[in-house]
Amino acid sequence: MAIKYHLEFEKPLVDLEQQIEVLEGSAEAGQSDLTKEIAALRKSHHQMLRKIYNSLTPWDTVRVARHPARPQCRDYIGLICKDFCELKGDRRYGDDPAIVTGFARIGSHKVMLIGHHKGRDTNEKLACHFGCAHPEGYRKALLKMKLAEKFGLPVVTLVDTPGAYPGLGAEQRGQAEAIAVNLREMSRLKVPILSLVIGEGGSGGALGIAVADRVAMLEHAWYSVISPEGCAAILWKVANEQTNLAAAEALALTARRNKRLGIIDQVIKEPVGGAHRDAKATAGSIEKWITANLAELKRLKPAGLPARRYERFRHIGQFRESRPAPVTTDD
Amino acid sequence: MTQAGARSWTESREGREVKIPEGLWLSCPACEEMIYRKQMEANAHVCPLCDHHFRIGAQERVRQLSDANTFEPMFENLSTVDPLKFVDLKSYKQRLKAEQQKTGQKEGVQCGRAFVKGRAVMLCCLDLTFFMGTLSSVVGEKITRSIEHATEHDLPLIIVSCSGGARMQESGFSLMQMAKTSAALARHDDAGGLFISVLTDPTTGGVTASFAMLGDVILAEPKALIGFAGPRVIKQTIRQELPAGFQTSEFLLDAGIIDRVVHRQELRNEIARIVDFANK
Question: d(Cα A245, Cα A238) in Å, to the nearest integer?
């Protein structure tokens, strides 16, 4: 059996899992009827799992979001899309595998699906720069969004990136410009846009494909202006277990806190123990969210979508406004 | 953060008795020559010997760009709160207070109507001296309102950027200001408005990846550091030395990302000239 990857806080489960395995092994060998014992162990395993996942710290959440077995964009495409017709390239520089784009059928909807992909094996990870997209990735995404607009297809984006790639070529080819243009153009795209953070929502690199009518996060995903390590290194001067935990807490990066702050619209529940324990069930919840929201948004006039989207983002931010208001605008 | 130009002779020669009154002379960080502060300041805060552009605050920037006494500050009634109750080694509230006391400013951007060589404009100047010009809810809101005001009154919009990027202490709210300002610029663009983005040293992170890169025309002061990721992060990621001049204005000009590199003394003229070309 393949060696399972356990997160630090999952260690209490290992013992139980081993016991279950041993019992199952002997049950298979037909030694005795252990169904009851196995069931009891499974139950306590499930209870412990639920308990652990109900009390994750924000830093634990970041680790779940980065779990090597956590389903990625291409996994969900396989599980959700009835047909996926991948479209590559930005027509200017190249094709960035860190962003996957293509026509897709989800439920009864035809959509343009766009998502960050981190890669599974070493080669794929390297090619995808671990989900850190280059400018050509963002430009490819925008090109396909415009294509979607032309044919009246809604856009669905799956966000999963530690951040946009910080490198020589990326800077030279205008990483900042590519992201900025996406923010501007997505805000006025005349088709419905849904964005879902499935794993990591790292800063501008995430937002670059997440200016949407509805934004949701999977329960154990994170979304923030900077990674906890980056924040810890700058504000706490050093990134270690303790400061990462403090930074993760301070940044309000969990799905629940983002929802409470009004930055996202919905939290999508994951199976007990995280998406990596049941990709199919997670995919089912995602599909439900996508189809329900598309059905709603499709009832609206496409021409009116940018105005609604504008309002959605226009009101994000907290500050105090003292009176008297300045005499500035006529309205 | 201290301004590059604020390093005085006495500070740089710590422990040695120096008779020159502090701040009268300073050593230019670029050519390392001693220059007379007043002469440098009269030269738009540019080194008279080597053209090094010293970093300046928003007030000085506004003074330099606008016609005398024409700047009308707007949206000054917005003030920063601490939405996340953010505490690192110090609390956000403490840091804010310290920045406000240090600079005498409420926040890191000044916005208002002004005239540039007789042309009415909407002018926003980020202030590097306040919290490194980082993007807070208030900075984002003031810029967004400025863009909306420019759109409504068909005013040319000038945003002078200098920023360390996002305001980490406002996390997601800071991030969303990127979307908000960019969306406002989409409307400004739809209405046919002119936006001149002026990049100064340094312009990085979330500010670069939003409004700063969305100018119809993008100008930059010479040798400014302009980029998405900081040089340190890039170096750590790629594990090699960065080429000389990487992420400078001149580098971006060569890369085709900005339109013009403009000497600070010429900025007013250039802005007026572009406003005229755009028939605004």
Answer: 12
Residue in chain B closest to A259 (alpha carbons) equals: B172
Which tokens go with B23?
């701040």
Would you say residue B2 has pLDDT above 60? no
Distances (CA, A) of B74 to A257, A326, B59, B143, B225: 33, 7, 14, 10, 29
**Above 70 in pLDDT, residue B7?**
no
- CA distance to B53, B194, B215, B228, B263, per residue, from B221 (Å): 8, 20, 15, 17, 6
Apex A209 CA angle, A203 and A215, nearest 5: 85
Residues 56-115 of B with CB under 8 A from A: 74-81, 83-84, 86-89
- Domain locations in chain B as residue ranges: 1-54, 55-277
For B55-277, which CATH class?
alpha beta
Is B149 in the A-facing interface, judged by CB distances under 8 Å? yes
Q: What percent of chain A has pLDDT over 70?
A: 96
Asked whether B76 and B36 are in contact (CB, 8 A), the reply is no
- The pLDDT tens digits for A125-143 are 999 999 999 999 999 999 9
Q: Which chain B residues touch A181 with a CB distance below 8 Å?
A: 213-214
Confidence at residue A31, expressed as pLDDT on a 0 to 100 scale: 66
Question: Which among A180, A234, A253 is the nearest to B171, CB-wise?
Answer: A253
| Contact between chains at B183 and A184 (C-beta distance less than 8 A) | yes
Nearest by CB to residue B209, choosing from A180, A231, A316, is A180
How far, in Å, CA of B63 to CA of B73, rounded?
A: 12
How far away is chain B from the Cα of A321, in angstroms, using its nearest Cα?
5
- Whole-prediction pTM: 0.93
Residues in Cβ contact with A243 at an 8 Å cutoff, skipping those fewer than 6 apart:
A232, A236
Structure-derived torsion over alpha carbons of residues A84, A86, A87, A89, reported in degrees to the nearest 10: 150
Give the minimum alpha-carbon distance from B163 to chain A in angstroms, rounded to a whole number.
14
